[in-house]
TrEMBL record:
Residues 1-42 form the signal peptide. It comes from Phycicoccus elongatus Lp2. It holds the Pfam family Trypsin_2. The chain crosses the membrane at residues 451-476. This is Peptidase S1 and S6 chymotrypsin/Hap.
Length: 603
């Protein structure tokens, strides 16, 4: 017989102890377990966390990802096709004469600009001479750390946008000055173009340049923001370079990328869950750096490094045309969230955010965000021989948070200090150490006193001794000096308690340029391609310049009840009762009969 909880097996001769002694041993072990075992906090990684604690555990492992792209663009110089322009002029004169258009100067100019914008390639042709300029672009997204060695996961399109979309972005950035010069020349012509006319011409010029634009080789550098926020320093200025290990295809492909931070150690990590355990209707939590709030004007530098977390239900599980599963959720997100972790209620990463649905006019549809399940991420990690795992920093941090939210501040303090020793750049631990010390100084600590262990233990022993002593006395009186049991006939004992040792608080184990866009703040995707939402829920309370924690944080679920302890059975009694022993009074000879009136012999 075997058991994962252990059994007592007897294969040779056994010496039976009195029942009260066995009870003493079992009760003693039970007393120790009862006193030193505390409710586990997500010991198996599946216990639900309160929203505040989930955010606190998640933030350290979530990083702002910045991708910088540099290249050169080359465009031909423009030549006006005078014949085509004269033909247009003649046609407009006829229309004005026949009343098809107005005869006022502004009306004729409006008609001219509208015709030119319809087909700029008819009226402007490219010359052989070209103009070349150097252009730089930056895109932002979210990523998360999967092991202590510095491997991160983000969305592929954050660091490798679609080439056609990237070309458009280079055109917009690189041609801005060229188009401005063109508009200056138009205004210098003496024609009274209205502001609306100039806007229409600017778009026509851009369309023309993009057709003939040539983009040189693109150089990409990626950085992740690791470390502590420093007042007056934007987080984008403190990026740590990251190596691109592997990149998938932008959504609807396997929109996943793996990065590596050189020389990293003891980084805060996030645990990977199992998307098979996430049914429709589950609550999902989206964490990341939405550009609209991250780079909002008027925000302090400290606020810019604060991740945002939102939540919403998993509304559907779908598949792409290639058969890849996709989660649909109502958790709010927006450009900048791409590549960010999507968590279950236990704080496990069950997917990454990659896309959002859009209407026919290109506007984002609220409540229709798309998530690639974590199983797809695991496939890429396996292909690159990256093993996810909890870092020692995160293990200690989660233990400390568990104690902190239980108001066991004296228990939390050494764990927070351990985190700081392992990873001095931890973005939140210094603030928690300050808060913890303040709580201790204010007399708010509720850490159980170790003396309680010995008091409860002593009380349990005394109780067992008292009860067991009486039971043993009665047992001896009942059985007297019966014969010893036959060796080798004892049944096997039942299982011992499954948790014979003390248990402490345990922690969680150990941009989106949505599809079709590179994730640049403010960019609108073309119709049919999913952009991100611009709506965000407020971030939960955090330790860095955020609202105070709730006075009563959610308590963790307790351990499941321990299995019952089965007492060893007593050996069988003889089938025939033994005759009572002869009466023997002090001072009398053995075998002497009791005198008349003596009390009966004690069995």
């Amino acid at each position: 017989m075997t058991s994962n909880r252990g059994v007592i097996r007897q294969t040779h001769s056994m010496i039976w102890a009195p029942r009260w002694l066995t009870a003493l041993v079992v009760a003693l072990a039970s007393s120790v377990l009862m006193v030193v075992t505390t409710p586990a906090r997500a010991a198996d990684g599946e216990t639900e966390l309160g929203a505040t604690q989930l955010a606190a555990q998640t933030y350290p492992g979530v990083q702002l990802i910045q991708a910088d792209f540099t290249s050169t663009i080359s465009v031909p110089q423009a030549i006006i096709d005078e014949a085509a322009v004269n033909e247009l002029y003649t046609r407009l004169v006829v229309q004005a004469a026949t009343g098809a258009i107005g005869t006022a100067e502004s009306q004729i100019i409006d008609a001219f600009v509208a015709e030119l914008a319809k087909d700029p390639f008819r009226y402007v042709t490219p010359a052989d001479a070209r103009t070349t300029v150097e252009v730089g672009l930056s895109g932002f997204g979210t990523g998360f750390v999967v092991n202590a060695e510095g491997y991160l996961v983000t969305a592929a399109h954050v660091i490798a946008p679609d080439p056609d979309e990237l070309k458009v972005e280079f055109a917009r950035a690189g041609l801005r000055d060229l188009i401005a010069n063109d508009l200056d020349e138009v205004q210098a012509s003496g024609v009274a173009y209205s502001p609306a006319n100039l806007d229409t011409l600017a778009q026509a010029f851009q369309d023309w340049y993009v057709r003939y634009l040539e983009v040189g080789e693109v150089s990409t550098t990626v950085s992740a923001q690791i470390g502590v926020a420093t007042a007056g320093v934007d987080k984008t200025q403190r990026g740590q370079p990251a190596e691109i290990i592997k990149v998938g295809a932008p959504y609807p492909g396997k929109d996943v990328a793996v990065l590596k931070l050189d020389g990293a150690a003891h980084l805060p990590t996030l645990p990977l869950g199992d998307d098979a355990d996430v049914p429709e209707g589950s609550t999902l939590h989206v964490t990341g750096y939405p550009a609209a709030s991250t780079f909002s004007s008027g925000m302090s530098a400290d606020s810019q490094v604060q991740p945002t977390i939102t939540e919403g239900p998993l509304t559907a599980i779908k598949k792409t045309e290639t058969g890849m599963p996709v989660f649909q959720t109502q958790a709010p997100a927006s450009p900048g969230n791409s590549g960010g972790p999507v968590l279950d209620d236990a704080g496990n990463v069950v997917g990454i955010l990659v896309a959002s649905a859009v209407a026919d006019d290109g506007t984002a549809l609220e409540g229709q965000e798309f998530v690639i399940p974590i199983s797809v991420v695991r496939q890429m990690l396996n292909e690159t021989n990256v093993k996810p795992g909890e870092s020692a920093t995160t293990q200690a941090y989660n233990v400390a948070l568990g104690a902190y939210f239980d108001k066991y501040y004296k228990r939390a303090m050494p764990e927070f200090q351990r985190v700081q020793a392992l990873y001095p750049e931890h973005p939140y631990v210094a603030e928690y150490i300050t808060r913890t010390q303040q709580a201790i100084d204010a007399g708010k600590d509720e850490t159980p006193n170790s003396l309680m262990l010995w008091v409860a233990l002593a009380g349990g022993v005394l109780m067992v001794l008292a009860v067991g002593g009486v039971g043993g006395f009665l047992l001896l009186r009942k059985h007297g000096k019966g014969p010893a049991p036959v060796a080798g006939t004892a049944p096997q004992g039942g299982p011992w308690p499954g948790n014979p040792g003390p248990q402490g608080h345990q922690g969680i184990p150990g941009q989106q340029g949505y599809a079709g866009q590179p994730g640049f703040p403010g960019q609108q995707p073309p119709p049919g391609q999913p952009p991100q939402h611009a709506h965000q829920q407020p971030a939960p309370a955090g330790p860095m310049g955020q609202p105070a924690w709730p006075a009563q944080p959610q308590q963790p679920a307790s351990h499941p009840p321990q299995p019952p302890v089965t007492q060893p059975l007593q050996p069988p009694l003889p089938s025939e009762p033994l005759p009572p022993p002869p009466w023997h009074a002090p001072g009398s000879a053995p075998g002497q009969q009791p005198p008349p009136g003596s009390p009966p012999p004690v069995p």
